[in-house]
Amino acid sequence: MTDDFAFEPKTVTVDTGTTVTWTNPGDVPHTVTAYEDEIPDGAAYFASGGFESERAARNNLKEGLIVPDETYGHTFEQSGTYGYFCIPHESSGMVGTVRVK
Questions:
Q1: Which one is the CATH code of 11-100: 3.60.20.10, 2.60.40.420, 2.40.240.50, 1.25.40.10?
Q2: Burial 76-97 (b: 16+ CB within 10 A, else e)
Q3: What are the residue boundaries of the structural domains of the chain, listed by start?
Q4: What is the three-class DSSP state of 63?
Q5: How far, in Å, CA of 6 to CA of 17, rounded?
Q6: Any idea what DSSP says for residue 91?
Q7: pTM score
Q8: What is the pLDDT of residues 22-75, one digit of tens each?
């Protein structure tokens, strides 16, 4: 994350087994929350705060916030395309994609 309302880069491509780490260098708290319907079948769900579903992440926003200067990481063990978003800034277009080879 580089500006206060966008993931940078918006799309990243990594190899299977890579840990992607999101860092919040801005002044506004964010989340990293997978869209359940935009991850490969059988892939592990991911969300800052450690939630196991999109609904749980949405219902517990404060527990999932990445405050300024903090990080969240997830290791992608399965190939495919993963869509994710920031809960408070989803309507502003704060979405991203991880492509795993």
A1: 2.60.40.420
A2: beeebebebbbbbbeeeebbbb
A3: 11-100
A4: helix
A5: 25
A6: G
A7: 0.94
A8: 999 989 999 999 999 999 999 999 999 999 999 999 999 999 999 999 999 999
